[in-house]
Write a structure and sequence with these properties.
By secondary structure, the protein is an alpha+beta fold. The protein has 2 domains: 14-58, no CATH class; 60-104, no CATH class. Helices cover 23% and strands 17% of the residues. The chain has 4 helices and 4 strands; from the N terminus they run H-E-H-E-H-E-E-H. A hairpin with a 5-residue loop joins strand 3 (73-76) and strand 4. The longest helix is centred in the middle third of the chain and has 8 residues, at 62-69. Pfam families: HNH_2. It comes from Tuber borchii (White truffle). This is HNH nuclease domain-containing protein. Residues 12-76 form the HNH nuclease domain.
């Protein structure tokens, strides 16, 4: 029996870039690199640019992805990857990250 995707369970997730794709020119200008030994094969839908490596990606809940992309929350790698709120909206939201969203 084939398993069907559970939209209620998995549809809430999105992949996002850690270093923003919109800043690819900055990436190139400052010659950021990813260890070639660790680079996964790029998606057939993405360019071969290292900014699209899975090492520059993270799986987000859709709502957290929005807050991350709009610079309302960040992840601090120097503090055990602590999630940090940069706005009041994000500060109120952070406690919900440890539990799944409620379904209607």
């Amino acid at each position: 029996m084939a398993l069907e995707p559970d939209e209620d369970r998995y549809g809430m997730f999105e992949a996002g870039h850690i270093f923003p794709l919109a800043l690819v020119d900055y990436w190139d200008a400052y010659e950021f690199e990813i260890d070639e030994d660790q680079v996964n094969a790029p998606s057939p839908h993405a360019s071969n640019h290292p900014i699209n490596s899975s090492l520059n990606g993270m799986l987000f809940r859709r709502d957290a992805h929005y807050l991350f992309d709009t610079y309302q929350l960040s992840i601090n790698p120097e503090d055990n990857y602590k999630i940090t709120a940069l706005t009041r909206e994000a500060a109120e939201y952070i406690p919900t990250l440890s539990r799944p969203p409620k379904h209607g």
